[in-house]
Amino acid sequence: MSFVKSKKPTAFDWVNYSLILLISLVCIFPFLYVFSVSFTDPEVYVPLRFYLFPEKWSLDAYQYILSTNSFLNAFKSTVFITVVGTALNLIVSFTFAYGLTKRTLPGYKLIMGFVIFTLVFSAGIVPNYLLIRELGLINSYWSLILSSLTNAWSLIIIKSFLESLPSELEDAAQIDGCSDLGVFWRIVIPLSMPAIATFTLFFAVAHWNTYFNALIYLTDSNKWTLQVLVKTLVIDSNSSAAAGAGASDEAVMPQETIRMASIVLSMLPILVVYPFLQKHFAKGVMLGSVKG
C-alpha cells in the first residue's frame, strides 16, 4: 500500500494565497461598508467615516425607504419585469433551441445563419429605440421584456445541451405515439432541469439588473426599475425622484443610510435565490458545452 506524501507549500504558493486573500478583502470591504452604513442608527451616523460594523444597529433606514412610494413602485416594476421576462425567456429560448436541434427543419441553415449573425453583429442603440417606438412600446414594461426575449449565446448553449441528451428516448416516445410537442414537454423538459435552473438565474439576474434599457424606454418615473431609482438616489440625490424617495430629507434620515439601504434591498432578492441554484451552474452549462 503506497502513500502519497503531501506537498509542502512553497514560497510561490504563499504569494498566491496572499494575493487571493488580498483581492478577496478588496472585494468584500465595499459590501461590508454598504451593509454597515445601512444598519447604522441615524443618530450615531457620522458622514465620511468608514464603518466596518455598525456602532449601533437600527432598521430605521429600511423602514423609512420601504414606506416611500418611489421605492415600492420601482420594486413592483422590477418584480413584474423579472418574473414575466424570465418565464418568456425560458419558453422562447428552449423551444427555439429545441427546433434548432432538428437539422431536417426547413430552412435550418438559414435560420442558424441568422442566429450566428446576431452573435457577431447588432443593430445598435438608435435602430433598437426606433423599433420600440414604432411598435408603440415606449414607456411600457413590454419594451424591456420583448426586446430581450432571447439571444444567440443562450440559444447556442441550450441547443448544444439538448443535443447531448440521448436521442433514443425521443425515438422511443415517438414510437409510443407521442407527438413532437409531447416529446418536448414530457421527455426533453424533465431532462433539462439543470440547464433550466441555470438559465433561470441568468435571465432573472439580467432582468433584475435592467438599467440602460429602462432608462431610455421608460419615461415615467413611476415605472422606473430598481436600478434606475438606486442610481438616482446614489448619484442624482438632488433630483425630484430622489427627494420623493426621501433622499434629500436630512432632518428625517441621513442621505447615506438611505442610499445604502436601497442598494442592499436591490441586491437582496438575487442574493437569496442564488445559493439555491448555484449547484446547477457547472452541471447545466458544462453538459451543454461538451458533446461526445
Distance between the termini: 36 Å
Q: Counting H and I runs of at least 4 residues, what is the number of helices?
A: 14
Query: Which regions are unreliable across 5 or more consecutive residues at pLDDT < 50?
Result: 238-243, 246-251
> Class of the largest domain, according to the CATH hierarchy?
Mainly Alpha
| H/E element sequence | HHHHHHHHHHHHHH
What fraction strand? Answer: under 5%
**Strand segment tally:** 0
Just name the CATH architecture of the largest domain: Orthogonal Bundle
CATH topology of the largest domain: MetI-like fold
Structure commentary:
The protein folds into 2 domains: 11-58, no CATH class; 62-289, MetI-like (MetI-like fold, Orthogonal Bundle). It has helices at 11-38, 60-66, 69-100, 108-120, 125-134, 142-145, 152-163, 167-175, 180-191, 193-208, 212-217, 226-234, 240-244, 255-289. With 292 residues, it is mostly helical. It is 68% helix and 0% strand. Residues 238-243 and 246-251 have low confidence and may be disordered. The protein is globular and about 70 Å long. Helix 4 packs across helix 7. Pfam families: BPD_transp_1. The chain crosses the membrane at residues 12-35, 79-98, 110-129, 141-162, 183-208, 258-277. This is ABC transporter permease protein YtcP.
